[in-house]
Design a protein that fits this description.
Layout lengths: L1 H16 L6 H12 L4 H14 L2 H11 L8 H15 L1
């Protein structure tokens, strides 16, 4: 899983650099998360994907599965917190 976590971090870094917009970088993150459905770090990533998408209902589902609450700050704020936690596990 560590290599996949590293891939998730890299993909989210690219998404962050693009301003958290929908597109190929978003799809790459989403694909990685879907491959690891049921694993907390990836479910959290999946939640942030759907928050970026603007699908709060779906995002909240994934936040619950990840044992997290939806962030109230910006996407960048949430990614910063998430990145720190994921990096410690990678």
């Amino acid at each position: 899983m560590n290599n996949d976590l590293a891939q998730l971090i890299e993909a989210f870094d690219r998404l962050s650099a693009c301003g958290f917009t929908m597109g190929a970088d978003w799809q790459a993150v989403h694909d990685i998360c879907q491959r690891h459905e049921g694993e907390q770090p990836f479910d959290w990533g999946h939640a942030l994907c759907h928050r970026i998408e603007g699908d709060d209902w779906n995002a909240d589902y994934w936040y619950r599965r990840a044992g997290k609450a939806r962030g109230t700050g910006t996407m960048a704020d949430e990614w910063s917190v998430m990145r720190t936690e994921l990096s410690a596990k990678a």
